[in-house]
Amino acid sequence: MSTTSVHPCDALFDASEAAVSLPVCDHYAGVEARMRKSLDLQAELGPVLDVTLDNEDGAPVGGEREHAQLIAELVTSPANRFGRVGARMLPVDHPAFADVAKTLVRDAGARLAYLMLPKPRSLADVERAAQEVDRLSVDAHLARRIPLHALIETHGALQHVQAIAAHPRIESLSFGLMDFVSAHRGAIPQSGMSVTGQFEHPLVVRAKLEIAAACHAAGKVPSHCVVTEFKDERALAQAADKAARQFGYTRMWSIHPAQIRTIVDAFSPTVAEVDQAIEILMAARDANWAPIRHRDTLHDRASFRYFWHVLARAHRTSFADGPQLPTEVRQAFFNEATA
């Protein structure tokens, strides 16, 4: 076998190390005009972001079923160019949960990228929702099971976060900052929801770290919470950088179009990091993934795996209207496998 034929995913990882890979930005929209604008923006920027159409907070009270029908229409429309549009459902104990789930799965299940489960109070809530979605999928004769994401925003969900992350139907966990703080009945001050306070209050920091650690242990994607100060670009950039480089998150929510590029930029590796990863991985490939010496430093498969993740993240965060990885690199590593 030639050295160029062995892809890093085959050479460096086994089946037990397989991990979910998702766009680094998850953009939320619930009002019809904003949902349509979000899909247009995704078409313009490329699949560097997912779009989550929101049935929980986006629907008027009593209008959840009708809103689910609108979401299904948008998911199945030509505006969903990349197949990277999901939907946030209602909590599993909401009276309209079953009807909303039925509409979304029956009418849009074949094209839904995922379904977000809000406010589970325990692993049992996740299992109940997963069973209902899977039952509806069978009834709709879907050829696949729709990936599920979950919001960790209750005390019970945080207590069961390891088990929820390990659940085979879960693809990603998000931190629900606002509801988590509110659940402490004033014990966490309002500043705990701010762009700076959420990285300082010990209870909030603990929750963020437990979610990230649980996801990485299970090979799932930890998704960081919102920054509500959407007009403060500098504060958003600092928060996104902390989430990515200090708290271990590989994805982050956006709630305003102006936040998307800032989030993607923060979760992208630097030019120097990408250049180093390219040099090392190309040399490793030429050595058929045996240990190499690079600038007087020894590297083997452990460091190759790290640099592969850097390169894969660079590939995922390339805007359609921005610079791409060199052609040689894309041909060598991303024609057959994606990351």
What does this 3D model show about the protein?
With 339 residues, the chain is α/β, with parallel strands linked by helices. The chain folds into 2 domains: 3-13 and 270-333, no CATH class; 19-266, Phosphoenolpyruvate-binding domains (TIM Barrel), CATH 3.20.20.60. 46% of the residues lie in helices and 13% in strands. It has helices at 8-12, 32-45, 64-75, 97-108, 123-139, 155-159, 161-166, 177-182, 202-218, 233-245, 257-266, 271-286, 301-316, 327-333; strands at residues 25-29, 49-54, 85-88, 115-117, 148-152, 170-175, 221-224, 251-254, 292-294, 297-299. The protein has an 8-stranded parallel β-barrel with strand order 1-2-3-4-5-6-7-8, surrounded by 5 helices. It has a two-stranded antiparallel ribbon with strand order 9-10. Strand 2, helix 3 (64-75) and strand 3 form a beta-alpha-beta unit. The longest helix is centred in the middle third of the chain and has 17 residues, at 123-139. The radius of gyration is 20 Å and the shape is globular. It starts with 7 loop residues before the first helix and ends in a 6-residue tail after the last helix. The mean pLDDT is 93.
